[in-house]
Amino acid sequence: MSLTREQAAGRIMVALDYPDAASAEALVSSLEGIPCYMKVGMQLYYAAGPGFVKSLKERGYKVFLDLKMHDIPNTVKGGANSITKLGVDVFNVHAAGGVDMMKAAMEGVDAALAADSSLQRPLVIAVTQLTSTSMKVLNEEIGISGSVQDAVVRYAQLTKQAGLGGVVASPQEVELIKAACGDDFQTITPGIRPAGADVNDQTRIMTPRQAIEAGTDYMVIGRPITAAADPRAALQSIIEELI
Ligand SMILES: O=C(O)c1cc(=O)[nH]c(=O)n1[C@@H]1O[C@H](COP(=O)(O)O)[C@@H](O)[C@H]1O
């Protein structure tokens, strides 16, 4: 796999896990000119709201809005409708909500697009098993038997059945997901740690290079960039690893 610098940057989603718009803004400014995705998760969204998402879009960024919706179908449909109106490129729900809930998310998207043809269709993806979840936690705490891989593939198949475009999983499961759901089914993988980086609370990890070689479509990377003394240099060194 050989990627240009621009292609490599376009496969990276930087997790803006910050408590307020000003701190997130400082990080975004430090990465200016690098065509990566920006991921807005619940910490930043609950503090800075849709205004921050819109400001990223106005500056030309592709945005992944990571709010991991998991509720009754009617509520998720409404949430997906509102998110689509924000003009984000990617958003997610939890596959654990089941096929009807995921189908409802797609209905919410369709209704928004039918009402306003200027909107773009977002890629809707489902979280399988969180990358912080180990087999021990899955089996002994949550009470799901079998391997994490089995649980992830099952969720990926349900996600595909519901008509979504891909899943969030660990890069360790990408090959199994592609084998079960096809090459076009998108894999978005957090749990990325450059060699020697702090693992933090992640369990199922790979390096950026390993993840790309495993066939991941997009990598979500937070602290290895945001907690670095020089975030721009950290992102550039990850890009170098991928080209
Ligand atoms: O949906 C996600 O983005 C997500 C799913 C998952 O299973 N694991 C996971 O870490 N994430 C997100 O990916 C980012 C990973 O951040 P770092 O661990 O700092 O690289 C965080 O913003 C998480 O919320």
TrEMBL record:
Record-annotated Orotidine 5'-phosphate decarboxylase domain positions: 11-238
EC number: 4.1.1.23
Entry's Gene Ontology cellular component terms: cytosol
Enzyme class of the recorded protein, top EC level: lyase
Residues bound to substrate: 17, 39, 66-75, 131, 193, 202, 222-223
GO BP, one annotated term: 'de novo' pyrimidine nucleobase biosynthetic process
Keywords for the protein's UniProt record, in alphabetical order: Decarboxylase, Lyase, Pyrimidine biosynthesis
Family: Belongs to the OMP decarboxylase family. Type 1 subfamily.
Protein name: Orotidine 5'-phosphate decarboxylase
Organism per entry: Paenibacillus albus
GN (gene name): pyrF
